[in-house]
Protein 1
Amino acid sequence: MSENAVKETKEFQAEIKQLLDIVINSLYTDRQIFLRELISNAADALEKLRYYKLSKEKVQDEDLPAEISIETDSTSHTLTISDTGIGMTEEELVENLGTIAHSGSKAFVQHLMEGNKEDINLIGQFGVGFYSAFMVAEKVTLYTRSYKPEAKGCIWTSEGTGSYTIAEAGDLKRGTKIVLHLKEDAREYEKPETIKRIIKQYSSFVPFPIKVNGEKVNTVQALWVKNKNEVTEEEYTEFYKFIANAYDEPLFKFHFSVDAPLHINALLFVPKDNFERYGFGRLEPGVNLYCRKVLIQEQSDIILPEWLRFVKGVVDSEELPLNISRETMQDSALMSKIRRVITGRFLKFLKEQANKEPEKYKEFWEKFAMFIKEGAATDLNRRDELVKLLRFESSKSEPDELISLDDYLERMKDNQKAIYYLNGPTREAIENGPYLEIFKERDLEVIYTFEAVDDYILSQLGEYEGRKLLSADQANLELPDHQEKNRAEDALSDEKIKSLLQWLKEKLGERVSEVRESKRLVESPAIVLSPEGMTNSMQKMMRMINKDLKNTGPNILEINPKHSVIKKLNALREKGDPFAETAARQILDNALISAGLLYDYRDMVNRMYEILDRALE
Ligand code: ADP
Ligand code: MG
């Protein structure tokens, strides 16, 4: 190739001069993105050629293989990127690499000049990606020959300072070859390892072979644009390992495309395990955003809501506009549309999986429940869908079985108006505590909740499918078939109960808001209930927020007049024995312990010794 003697020097358009000034004179940490830009231009040129060939246009050098070749040379300190795409005619060169037509590109240059230089890595999305070559090159020489048979080859050169030259070239083959004469501080880009690493990061899915010094480096296919039935399970797994940096297989895989209202291809995975659960810190978002197979945003925090940060995969949308910067991406209507569509489809997918493969869904639930709960508690727009994904243990489930709210509805009693749930630290604690007694007796199912967030979600929800959601420890529960039961023969008389209640309120004072006879106790002597509008777990939550809170409440104390402890207490009281008061205080504390609401144990422990002392006599 010999450079022709007729060499013309031309000025860049003003905006390009400004852009180049920024590109050349600032130090960017992210300058490796120049390679993504040049490769994506090469891929575009090859894609266009494929199109022209399909439309039966006559094409120069018909038989050249469609590929991108990269050569590194540490002697001449050059990096050369060649493609066999459509190339450019002289007029096209002037137009494409000398002027900016898009108003969006101009606005981008303006944006950079206003001090937002860190946004330079968005250069590709603003139709000026080519100029990023000057981040690493002190001089760029570009050889190109158009696919149009009558066109001549051209050589374009520039040092990025205001002007460029164009000359005619002799015997070029179709396509474009860009030689970057690397800056002294950019010599790392003459190393093939560096180049391969960058290609893996940004350009793995470019649909044409990319060779570095003759070796093909992009071996993973962009599966998301393929048809589902053209992809094997092994390919999916390999792909997942690649994009998620994982060593195992995914738990779920969801491959889908959407045509309306937007064109989207997506391939999403749920990993086998959730490391956030083990306290390894908050997961980073795991979905990458692509536009026609070229990476736009890695680990996008915009494409899915935060509570789906455990999802890995790829979303590709052709509609991403050129002029989109980080800030505008955050609140762009298009991005929120994509997010809405993807989130909706993914939740629907989970629901289907739960129905189709309950065992697998259970595995998912054990590991990823925290995210579904986070969503249900914080994302009002998705709450209704998320609530259907919740799973619980219940008084009627087998120990390792989980039920949904729908399962509960399906088997609840005809005359039952509400769904009941009850919080406790463990299944055993709930089942041995006093709160469940009445439900056991009436054969009513109670959902067990083990975390405060469960109660938060259910109480916020208020009702499900027209049925109230009620915490089983709340005061004034109205249960079905509720009829005054005759007190057992040997229970205390009305009169005695009345004066016992009065006495208890007097002795317990501020610590209780009310003392009353219980209609729900069967085996326990006493129970505390949260005042109207509160639940025990709300009280626990308040205490979690304010650790200084010595006691919660005051709560309602209910006593069981059939219980021998209560009867003996009354007898002692009637005799005027001062030990009756000690026993009464202990009964309240025991009830508070059952409720998980006793935080200051000192009084209680000392009193226990006092009681032991007497018992051991
Ligand atoms: P964009 O790719 O967004 O259009 P660029 O600054 O990257 O912006 O490139 C500008 C234009 O230069 C391209 O649209 C294309 O017409 C032309 N071009 C760049 N590189 C090549 C190439 N390798 N082959 C053919 N044309 C190219
Ligand atoms: Mg480009």
Protein 2
Amino acid sequence: MNQTSLATTDKDNGPVKRPSHSLQTPELSAPAHQLEGDLLIEELASDAERGLDSEEAARRLSQYGPNLLRETGHQPWYQLLLHQFSDLMIVVLFVAAALAWYLGDVRGAIVLMAIILINAAIGLYQEFHAEQLLERLRSMIRSQAVALRDGEMLELDAADLVPGDIVTIEEGGAVPADLRLLSSNELATNDFMLTGESLPQEKDAAAEPAPDAGLAEQDNLAFMGTTVARGSATGVVIATGMASTIGEIAEIGQGIKRDRSPLQLEMNALARILTRMAGLIALALFLINLLLRSEDFADLPALVNASLLFAIGVAAACVPQGLPAQITVALSLGVGRLARENAVVKRLSSVETLGCTTVICSDKTGTITSNQMTIVSAWADGIDYDISGRGYAPQGQVLREGRALEPAELEGLQLFFQLGLLAGNGRTHEPDADHRDWYAMGDPTEAAFMPLAFKAGLQPEQCLEDSELIAELAFDSQRKRMVMVRRVGGRAVAYMKGATPSVLEACSQIVRGQEVVPLDDNMGDAITARMQDFSAQSLRVIALAYRELPGDQQDYTIEKTERDFVFAGLVAMLDPPREGVEDALKAVYRARMRLFMLTGDDPVTAAAIAERIGMPDGRVITGNELRDMPDAELRDALGARSVILSRVSPKEKYRVVEQLKALGEVVAVTGDGVNDTLSLKRADIGVAMGKQGSEVAKEAAEIVLTDDDFSTLVIAVQEGRTIYQNLKSVILSSITSNIGELSCVCTGFVGAAVGLPIPLTAVQILSIDLVGEMLPLMALTFDPPDRTLMEQAPRRQGSHIINRKSLVDIVAMGVLMGLGGYFSFYMVLLSGGSTGSAQAAAFLGIVLIQYVNILSRRTVDSIFSGYLIANGKLTGSIAFSFLLVAAITSWPGLSTWFGFEALRLADWLWPVSAALVFLAIFEIKKRIL
Ligand code: ADP
Ligand code: MG
């Protein structure tokens, strides 16, 4: 099967060059852009009317493989391994190990090598894990395609497309495979990914590119991986998956970026500083050591060796080897956890930014609401109708004052009940393999008119067939209306639907008592009043109008066509808020963030929905007001707790995001539509809906919610905060102990001046890192959020973990830790212990204090709470580490290897009491704060 050949190409290194014989595309008599559509369909053994039949499609699927892009150019394992050793800190440790070995300190070299290898293993595991994770994330963002199969249009998984399929594409959607266009309407695609051209590329089924036309000129083709900027088209699939143009030339489209986050940058910088400082410290220690032992000058080479070894060991212990790797591990673990919660993060660093979010700007339709449109009411010729039935199923009736209308009564309403259908592209389809219920294809707002026609006793398919499409003036969020011109019995009729004010603008007449009369201001007011009644019930209102066009009209531009319409009536759609939004919103406010609603919809509808989901009362600003508002005033308005912006265009959404950012807010924008892409891109974090959202929105976003659930965003914010919090504890604890070790050594020099032995040897210091803290620090990144995390104000973006305040804190605590170690050492000496056992006590003291340090830094509460054991990995690794440490310090067989003499039970008193004092200091500090 083709699968295997795809698998082998996966391992290729060069993403560009791939042997073409390994992939199959159907044989064609000429390049696809040179073939007429009809001929091409014939050569592909397809059918323009019926598409492929499902058996043939299944056969082709197994022949050509699924329509998926796979990643090429994986790094082989040995490159990944080598990569681990390219790190400056690891190099430093390597040199230290080699030098130690050379100078005869075998134990020091072994401990150093163990540290290096463990770090490399972690790094390697992490890179493998990251690769797999990215692969999985990519496959989570699935897209749908609309194709003709067995004579029917239906929606299927884009991965199931095969050459020969007839598909339709429309604005906001992705081009699901390489297509030869068969018909097109004002089509333009975003080909940036293929050609680097940032402006939409106009496409036309009738174009005749030259035989040697390049990709950018093959205007009768549309390419997989591009998206539809405007217009619509049908086309026949000529290549899928890795055989498509993008599969052949480019790195994979759904590029998941692995850029460095601010925290990673801060840590890399810090690591560099500390590594350099370690160098200086080594030099200083070396000189001090030489001077202190000047009486040994007789044997100079031996003295130099010993001093050098000591200096290297201590300096190596100061290098924060694990830190940068740990941050990457923690971030990618977070990305993995988020994926399980249905949030696909396309960029590692956005996990961090998420935690800083202060304002969420959310689109209404499709984000806060479910975008499942059901027309529930209609108003035509001054009469109200109720429509029964829910969802897209055709069952239901048109009722007037609670009584279902007879077919005879519906007779005169035929035009009204099919108008919306004729003015749109949306269709519905019965349940099939991929869908349990009737479902919408295309824009749900448009699809909702199909069940309406059914319920009014019409045959929607027949209506559409009887009125051939001549021209389409597509919907855009600026005009907020759309028109379709159709030929009906020899006449050209234009059908319009849109937002009520926009439609009224284009109307000069109205249907009154079954007759067409001029539209006057009173009637306009009545329409607006009726619309507001609907809106107040949180319904989405669409106005309908039509116009018979002059017989001699040739071209159908907006200017010539969109005027003198006859107003026909209103329909009202139910689009209920998504489940769980109310609770999610409470969590948003608890976490001291704000939510603004940005919608193209009516202010009254927006306010009604806002009330239903529990948004606090706030100002409603309309697009018109916004346009006249100077920046300063807008910024003032945006300071409020809750703001609704209604009837805004994409540009105005963008402006709001921009002004919020100017106010220093960290803005997350959630959206699903084409009209949201600008603001999604401008946001600090763009969040798109994965299921119902348009492909362009998903592409513009950094995070895709695959369950379309607004509350997933709150979980994502929590994850972002948790990760940052955990990394903060890791970093601070880790540096504290380095300072602790160093200050213990320095105190040792003071002691040496009065003739005391040194408290810790180089091997012993390195062992503190290895057995005492490596595992617990790693486990720390798995901490669950602490009680208060989602009740605090978001942290400031750009704040550093190492700042003046935290520096004072870690230096103070570090020095205390060092003194605690030296105290233990000194007390054992004083009570008659040997140098070896005093050193074991110093070692034990520092490790125990480090446990306290780690456990205290992870919560703002006392460590004695349920949270103490909330992280099983941490509890386990501290227990394991403690066993090792106890064995090293107290079991004679092992302790001699580390240069210790085993501790007596009574010697434990001093390290334990030092740790308790340290604990008390932390607890008191927390109480006071
Ligand atoms: P939102 O920003 O909440 O997603 P939209 O931009 O989708 O809102 O819609 C704005 C307004 O445009 C709606 O209130 C509706 O009246 C109108 N509208 C939306 N979609 C269509 C459509 N396909 N055809 C006609 N009018 C539409
Ligand atoms: Mg929307």
